[in-house]
Amino acid sequence: MPELPEVETIRRCLEPLLVGRRVVGVRVRRPDVVGHPTSARSFRRGVRGRTVHAVGRRGKYLVLEFDGGRELVTHLRLSGHLAVVERRSVPRHERIRYVLSDGKVLSFIEPRALGRAYLVERGRYPRALRGMVSMGPEPIAPGFNVRWLASQLRGRRAPVKALLLDQRVCCGVGNIYADEALHRAGVKPARPAHGLKPAEVSRLADKLREVLRDGIRWCGTTLGDGRYLRPDGRAGSFQHRLAVVGRAGDGCRRCGGIVRRTRVAGRGTYYCPGCQK
DNA sequence: CTTGTGTCCTGTAGGC
DNA sequence: TGCCTACAGGACACAA
Fold this sequence. Notes:
Elements: H1 4-18, E1 23-28, E2 34-36, H2 40-47, E3 52-58, E4 61-66, E5 70-75, E6 81-85, E7 94-100, E8 105-109, E9 116-121, H3 130-134, H4 146-153, H5 160-164, H6 175-185, H7 198-217, E10 260-264, E11 267-271
Helix pairs in contact: 1-7, 4-7, 6-7
The protein binds a DNA duplex through loops.
């Protein structure tokens, strides 16, 4: 499932392939993945003819900036995938197809059809995209620090993991990196947020930033489920460096304890009872 | 406001 | 072998 490091990897891969190219054709194969405007026809008409000026990212959203102040915002949700393919190639589960002026095709592939593409005017986000407006600071940017995290955890009795997954608190963080950050920080995912000591909050802020940066460095996490791939079809490699996710029953690499899988905040959760308190 | 639960969606894994 | 069900989860809707 693409989280901040995966979307950032996708962004970096797409940037040189898309900037300066014009979208000469749009094909919507599955209208319900168009989140805005309401009709696939107006989406198609609004995108066609536009030139990509920049490729950005906000949290887990990928943002293609067009001329004329419009943006194509895409959220990949759980199984979404963006691939640059040849003109003849039609990937399985392709939902939207953008034909580019250089003859290549940007294909929005989404087996579960939960991902969405939105065409909006810059800064004017529709109801369906209000998550973009309420989104917190990027954990890898300077605005995210111990003070911010402490202010968000204060007085909250929800499990600390639930707050890491809250995009208003830690944008871009999803199930994998939340578990990995908590493991690096030595904090049990189910701990009520307000019970964390200042040193633990501080460690968590540091480790969150660290694990996201590592995820980017290793080009994201490709697990068997979800099948995240980079736009050129290559896998990421952070899956080889996961400390707890997917390792239930195996030994913790730090303390030798047995990694467990439980359920926290309604999500499958991996942690080590030996070194996470 | 805060917190927990249900919903969307479909490929895959597991049971019999 | 093949059918069926449960499960996975990000973001949002909604209830208490």
